[in-house]
Every structure is written in structure tokens, then in C-alpha cells.
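Input/output pair, single chain:
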Amino acid sequence: MPTSLNHQHSFILNRAHFEECFDESVTPLTGPKRHIKTLGFGLMTFALLASPLPSYVGWFFLGLTVLEFLSVRYQRTWWLWRQLMSRAAGNEVTLTVTDTLLITESLGQKRELAWDSLDAITPTARGFLLQRGRARQYLSASGLSPEALAFLTHFNSANDAEQTEQ
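Output:
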């Protein structure tokens, strides 16, 4: 393991990057459980259309029902579309990996994530999932140097050994 790591890499937040992030970090829901919110909106629609309230309230909920169904049915497409429509899409991100921090800089914002504050680092087929509490962040291995990859792999195995001891 290197004694002093300082790897810097820049990439563009484009469609290919967002596709990789989704494919490596999201576990799609399966079965009928994923449609519970859609069913709830549908029942609310019928209740509102049958009530004495103005009908536009019921039609609004019908629109929400359709949108929710489409967002569940086409989850990957829906997520990619939202990311590509965001202000961050198309911008350059500078990623710096040191032996103590992961630093991302984009759109004039600088975010630092201390390795010690992470709960888990899970390797995936094309990168790493960093978990801190309920928040997860995907880190692609495509632009990382061999030293940074070795550091992440070693850090992951050290965390695994620590957790098995406890």
C-alpha cells in the first residue's frame, strides 16, 4: 500500500457515466411490492372523483398515478432522464483520491468524504459503492490509477477484517 496517495482524475457527467452509476448501484425492485404507491394513487383518484370535491383534484391524482406507474415500469430510463435534465449533466467533475479523503469538485462546489467516516466499501464489477449510513455513492474504477485501486481494495479488505473481529 502506498504511504502517500494523491490521485487526481477528471471526467464529464455524461449519459455513459450515469448509465454505469445506475447499473452498478441500483437494485431494481421486483414483484408487486414496487407498485404499492401506484395502487395508492389509483385508489385516491377514484375516491376523489367520486367525492363532491372539484373533479380537477381527481384528475390531478390520475396524472400522478400514471407518472408513478411509468417511473416504476421504466425505472432506469426515468432515472437517467432525471440525471440528464439536471444542472450537473455535461459538467466536468474533478475527483481527488488521497489516503485520507475523497474530494469531488464540480460547479464551484467542493465535497470531501473522509475514508474513516465510511461504513462500507463494496466492490462492484466496474467500481466501488461507498456507504455512509443510508447514503450510497458510486465511484467508477475507469479513471482510477493502479495505486488508487490498490488503496481502495486494501481499505475494503481492512474494513472487512475489522468487522469480522467485532
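The radius of gyration is 21 Å. The chain has five helices and seven strands.
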